[in-house]
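Re-run with default settings, no changes from the original entry. Doing this only to confirm the output is reproducible before filing.
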Amino acid sequence: MLIVVVGSLAMLTVGCDRIAGKVKAPASPADEMARQAELLLGEGKKQEAKAAYQQIIAEYPDYKNIEMVQEALYRLNMDIIFSNMQTPQTVMHEVLAGDTLGKISKKYGVTMELIKICNGMKTDTVRLGQKLRIWTGKFTLHADKSQNILMLKSGDEIMKIYHVSTGANNSTPAGTFKIATKLENPVWFKDTGAVIPPESPQNVLGSRWMGFDNKGYGIHGTVDPDKIGQQVTAGCIRMRNEEVEELFKIIPLGTEVVIVD
């Protein structure tokens, strides 16, 4: 049924909105859920918003804005990881006599930097009786060379997917490795014997290095972000500097890295 109000542009329709003669399709269930997630975020209800995004991805994989939903979920996951909010993957640790930040980080398998960020700490000093929010979900990394992506997982949950570069001619090794070294602003020692300092624009390692227990291979930053997403490296996994710096704060030594063809 169509009702026309004479002398006015307003027109009412059943099943859709009509504005100036143009039909606007009704919102889909996924649209409504995405809108609800944004409202929840605005109210500070991050866990509820996260659940809404996860439901969209699970139930509506063909949703026209699915990539935007995924990116929103990844941003929210990072926000939660670096926050002080309680989640099923966190505990509160009360500092005991003899505790140090290093001991606490080793106990829970989490980086000192992440503990400091989550608890608003400016120094490495902890106080007796201080309560610290600690992330306890085990982080792992999973790289897919065919798609040039690197997934950060906590337990079985994908927390974020990064676009990366991998080795030319399939030179990035497949297999399971561990993070054995971590360096900020690394020096690059070339095969020729040349030493390239961190500040040099020729230092291909960028701002961070996370080396595998397979010598010579690792994850690092870049001085050429335009080539992210391509198979162009000498075998390492290359990331944008701001993203490898984010990951560096999260990933402790010993983290498992799984690389597949």
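The longest helix spans residues 66-81. Residues 1-21 have pLDDT under 50 and may be disordered.
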